Amino acid sequence: MLNLALSMSRLGCGVGTQKGRGRSGRQFNYVPGNCDDLDFRHLDVLKRKKCRWRGVELVEGETNAPFGNHRTVNVSSPSENLPRARRLLWEPGGNMAAPGARSRSLSGLLPAQTSLEYALLDAVTQQEKNSLVYQYLQKVDGWEQDLSVPEFPEGLEWLNTEEPISVYKDLCGKIVILDFFTYCCINCIHLLPDLRALEHTYSDKDGLLIISVHSAKFPNEKVLDNIKSAVLRYNITHPVVNDADASLWQELEISCWPTLVILGPRGNMLFSLIGEGHKDKLFLYTSIALKYYKDRGQIRDDKIGIKLYKDSLPPSPLLFPGKVTVDQVTNRLVIADTGHHRILVVWKNGQIQYSIGGPNPGRKDGIFSESTFNSPQGVAIMNNTIYVADTENHLIRKIDLEAEKVSTVAGIGIQGTDKEGGAQGEQQPISSPWDVVFGTSGPEVQRDDILWIAMAGTHQIWALLLDSGKLPKKNELTKGTCLRFAGSGNEENRNNAYPHKAAFAQPSGLSLASEDPWSCLFVADSESSTVRTISLKDGAVKHLVGGERDPMNLFAFGDVDGVGINAKLQHPLGVTWDKKRNLLYVADSYNHKIKVVDPKTKHCTTLAGTGDTNNVTSSSFTESTFNEPGGLCIGENGQLLYVADTNNHQIKVMDLETKMVSVLPIFRSENVVVDGPFLVEKQKTLPKLPKSAPNIRLSPMTACAGQTLQFKLRLDLPSGSKLTEGVPSCWFLTAEGNEWLLQGQIPSGDIENISNQPTVSLQIPKDCLSLEAIVSISVFLYYCSADSSACMMKAVLFSQPLQITDTQQGCIAPVELRYVF
């Protein structure tokens, strides 16, 4: 007997279960409605070649897969064990059958495409392959009735287009590729370079159009603004439609992210490709489809109206910063400015010291002015050396700040599939590293000699030996070795005392607690919505918070404070260890919150963030907001928590003692050379204050250097009035004669909602040029009466005298700036 264990992990995709649409892990053994769609006509060929095809693994006897409902085929008489519809394809001389007249799902394509793909296995030359695909299209095109894709439902939200697209009005005469994706999925991210390459080869004038159909896994991913951010982060330049209710997904019975569906010029389905890693087939099927229908005069060269969302955005100093870390020696910050494809080294006041890479993606080592990165994420700094997870280049890079040079220490520049490793770093292929952190190979080692890597692309934790040493349960390893430490490579939430039998689901954040009794790595395991630990003594992988006990269920997410498995997270991307308090901070990214975990009790609670994505720039922890924060780190001896507030394009500073949140201003001084771009949003011009504007002088305040002051606006409009739409009300921070006070501060901002007014923040510089100053806050409100019959502008000026002292002051309560117009 030959046991057929279906493993969708070999396809590189997220899958659904019989319980419903969604990803339950990439290990996908016989789920009803899927195995029956396989064609085993060339099973003897597969066995002889010992190859794997479309996720079918041929294994003699039993398998150790977690499901018991495998489909078993008797090789001597295989058709006895196959579904009746597929048995016809098994018989010698069997022909491709047309789908049922009412079929609109991908299952109608599978019999025909299965036969084609078996035939392609035996094709040797490119001419043979082209001929087989051409013949396939002749047969499919000759079916009595097209296998037609449903029309896009009305009312869907579109991006990168001038207007909504209709399959049967706008796409006639085009070969169309529908890319079903969800933006959290690493396999979907891996597919994007293939689609870009295809778009560079064929344009809409050639008859090709790609449309990405976003079908969300997480509730947070259904929100259009979050999809907009993903479109910008991943530089998607073709049309994207938000299928929030997954209507098209369900009609086509799709079960896996990503899935590509290739349509002909009549909206007729021609091919489907499941998972990543099918670039050759994608190009083959597309090129021959274009040729086939051009030969018949059915391809049109008219253009589709494209309007890129990114063209409407203002520039900003940071663009989707993914991770941040702190140099504990100098208190400098290292920021992965992911959207600008660069690394920033900044002083703690936000002034840039180095900008390396950008503005465009690339892969080049060398001096700072020549070096390039591609969507870098994790960063770690030690002794003037920075290690970077260069995610979309599939590399680990090293930045030498003294020599001002960048080099590659792991990866070969293309996505790897190796799940074991063991080669020297520069020869070892790796896949989408997402975070890095330093560690030691043993308690007796006095220096950091290991770089731990969250390898999101293969769902594992890897190690790069910075010096010769040993890993738990490993022999001595030479310097430069790069290898798997924990994780089988299956996408699961599986804990195990044996690190290689455990499994992760897109690990995206790492932090180290080297001291006893912890002695572990903390892992933000994003797709399982958990935080896990890996023992540095024996490699055992254990659960900390989030998720559930079923290792295959990757849908146990939510926003619940609690203990252990009763706590719920949603796609956490970052963790950092607070050695001073023995607490772990978590960037609960899709809940837009920062949470804190006590690893001793497993108690997880919300520390900051309301869950709202509005950008409140300065506030208390309880009023603060974030938008998909991706990374965080501890600085200032445990006083400050720096947060990469990714979709707000900011680094936010959380003071763990005063419980206040502020924004770190990013700026450069005149004498600093910045190699990458520095796009500065144009500052507002301070309007002239009306003579009628009241000047409210506040009580003098004493503050010390380095202290942060908060001013809360509390303004009331006349009854029934409302802010004027389209005219931004605003505030300005000034210090006439003492402009040194404002260096690196945010000098102005908008007031968008009278019921949710901003807090103005001012950090007293460490080096003060005067011990007395007056800080002024001007507010300009544009508002209309309830019936909009009268609109006006009013202003008010608040003046705050300051006494600056060297004596450390206690916590200063926020000052409320109240006025009724």
Automatic annotation (TrEMBL):
Thioredoxin domain ranges (all copies): 138-295
NHL repeat locations: 560-600
Subcellular location: Cytoplasm, Cytosol
Keywords: Cytoplasm, Repeat
InterPro entries in the cross-refs: 6-blade_b-propeller_TolB-like, NHL2_NHL_rpt_dom, NHL_repeat, Thioredoxin-like_fold, Thioredoxin-like_sf, Thioredoxin_domain
GO annotation, cellular component aspect: cytosol
Keyword Repeat assigned: yes
Pfam families linked: NHL, Thioredoxin_8
Main location: cytoplasm
Highest taxon above the source species: Eukaryota
Function statement: Required for normal embryonic development.
PANTHER family membership: NHL REPEAT-CONTAINING PROTEIN 2
Assembly and binders: Monomer.
Name of this chain's protein: NHL repeat-containing protein 2
Organism whose genome encodes this protein: Callithrix jacchus (White-tufted-ear marmoset)
